[in-house]
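Reproducibility note. Readers wishing to regenerate the assembly model reported in the main text can use the exact inputs given here. Chain order matters: entities are listed in the order in which they were concatenated for prediction.
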Amino acid sequence: MSVTETLLVFVGIPAAAVLVIAGLSYAGSRGGGSGGGTKRYRPGRPFDFTPVWFLGRPEQLADSAGTALAAGAQAPALTSRKQEQAGIEAPAGGTGGASDRW
Amino acid sequence: MTVGEKQAGSPNPPEVLDGPFSTRQLLRIDEALRLADQGTGLVFSVFVGGLDEPIREHAERLHRQLAEPDRSVLIAVSPNQRQLEIVTGRHARKRIPDTYSRLAALSMVAAFGGGDLTGGIINGLDQLASHAGRG
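Running the prediction on these inputs yields the following structure tokens for the assembly.
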């Protein structure tokens, strides 16, 4: 083997392999999986995302605006009309549940 | 309609993907909701976002917006106020007594305190649904 061939095999190929692996790991850490970690909620930090309302079936929301609401879609803001309506309706006596803080 | 379908073809992804949940987490919440609905015959829904003061009244207002409030269970999470509200309708309350709601709330709050919104929501749904039993 000439000097050039030796260099190519023992330096060029390892260098190429190292570059490929480094590139792959860099791309993986940026794009995939955890999504960078900046988006997730951390207790105590301000939470300024748009409100979401998850429903198993979107048609379960009473007003017509809800029909376009898919699971995980953005919830429509309560308009004053809706709020008034909800206020006028007889309060659904006997609702139960629980409250808690963290 | 799923999140993926909405995304296809549109240049800007739906806003919910900008939220605190990844696509995988959204799918898991969707699945948990579907299983809870199917298993119990009740209607479960989850709201994550700011709630106005008084918080309990706002959560109950959201609950009344659902198609069948009596058979519905709303889990309202307000991360900014660090407040969790579980609202059960008149009929749902017979299946899930307040004691069990409180238990589910306790475990959800534990997960939220660790920063795990998705885990808490899924755990809570699972607990509520298993207490409600088959419809």
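We highlight two features of this model. Residues 30 and 36 of chain A are 7 Å apart (CA to CA). The radius of gyration of chain A is 28 Å.
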